[in-house]
């Protein structure tokens, strides 16, 4: 299954976090997958799901973003390895996470991993003043194939001076059938309010799905640093790739792998955690 679109925007967040950031509760981590969660039966096989526990409980249900999947031998990836992340049972203390294949079959023997980030719902700033917002909403609108584009919208509360970077993930498992999320762009109006057009992504697989929760994290593009609970200074680099920026757009897997250029004079002091979401027009 290929997500083929002409123009694709990828929201990239390079974080060197591993613990909770101070000032506001923001946690990141890494999860490893050995199994594929089935999508042909409503029966949940718990062994196929990973449990993540937060270092510190949130005051309310947080927004969780995960992905993309990191796969060894990417250049030799087969269509059978076309997997998506599902998240369920998000509580103040943790969540469940698994991967699904569009054909719904379960499986084992995976060697995959992904980073995740959790933030509270609502608006706040990082310790260096950068704006961030966690948004949780729900929809049953499904974008399916080229001529079936059903779109929902959600508005942020933060006042951003420019269009923010938008990360997004499924945050529920109300329907066992395969699905993922997509954002059909976001824009910031003259009042600084950001409006996001989004839907459940059925691709070539399905045109219907029960209502699911979708989480968004909006961030200001740029570089900076925050301090974690161990008083360590952690750097971050947040940005987007725009079609034409480096003379090419980012297309599907069949078109090859793309390196993300970074022209900023900014160096991370350790191998970062990387989060990415697709936004397309």
Protein topology:
Elements: E1 8-15, E2 27-36, E3 50-53, E4 63-66, E5 84-88, E6 94-100, E7 107-119, E8 122-125, E9 131-139, E10 142-144, E11 148-149, E12 152-155, E13 165-170, E14 180-188, E15 194-203, E16 212-219, E17 222-227, E18 233-241, E19 273-280
Parallel strand pairs: 10-15
Antiparallel strand pairs: 1-18, 1-19, 2-7, 3-6, 4-7, 5-6, 8-9, 9-16, 10-11, 12-15, 13-16, 14-15, 17-18
Describe this structure in words.
With 281 residues, this protein is an all-beta fold. Helices cover 0% and strands 46% of the residues. The chain is built from no helices and 19 strands. It has strands at 8-15, 27-36, 50-53, 63-66, 84-88, 94-100, 107-119, 122-125, 131-139, 142-144, 148-149, 152-155, 165-170, 180-188, 194-203, 212-219, 222-227, 233-241, 273-280. Strands 10, 11, 12, 14 and 15 form a five-stranded mixed β-sheet that branches. A four-stranded antiparallel β-sheet has the order 17-18-1-19, with no helix packed on it. It is globular and about 45 Å long.
């Amino acid at each position: 299954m290929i997500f083929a679109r002409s123009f694709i925007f990828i929201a990239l967040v390079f974080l060197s976090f591993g613990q909770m950031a101070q000032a506001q509760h923001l946690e990141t981590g890494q999860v490893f997958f050995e199994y594929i969660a089935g999508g042909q039966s409503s029966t949940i096989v718990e062994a196929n799901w990973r449990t993540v526990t937060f270092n510190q409980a949130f005051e309310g249900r947080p927004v969780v973003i995960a992905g993309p999947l990191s796969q060894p031998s990417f250049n030799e990836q087969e269509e059978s390895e076309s997997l998506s992340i599902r998240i369920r049972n998000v509580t103040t203390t943790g969540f469940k996470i698994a991967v699904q294949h569009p054909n719904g079959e379960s499986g084992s023997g995976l060697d995959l991993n992904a980073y995740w980030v959790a933030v509270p719902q609502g608006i706040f700033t990082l310790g260096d003043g950068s704006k961030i917002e966690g948004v949780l909403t729900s929809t049953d609108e499904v974008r399916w194939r080229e001529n079936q584009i059903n779109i929902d919208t959600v508005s942020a509360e933060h006042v951003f001076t420019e269009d923010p970077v938008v990360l997004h993930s499924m945050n529920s498992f109300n329907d066992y059938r395969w699905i993922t999320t997509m954002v059909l762009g976001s824009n910031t109006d003259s009042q600084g309010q950001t409006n996001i057009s989004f839907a459940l992504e059925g691709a070539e697989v399905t045109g219907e799905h029960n209502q699911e929760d979708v989480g968004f994290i909006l961030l200001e593009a740029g570089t900076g640093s925050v301090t974690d609970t161990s008083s360590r200074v952690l750097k971050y680099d947040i940005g987007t790739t725009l079609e034409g920026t480096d003379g090419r757009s980012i297309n599907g897997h069949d078109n090859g792998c793309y390196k993300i250029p970074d022209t900023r004079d900014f160096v991370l002091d350790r191998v970062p955690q990387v989060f990415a979401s697709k936004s397309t027009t």
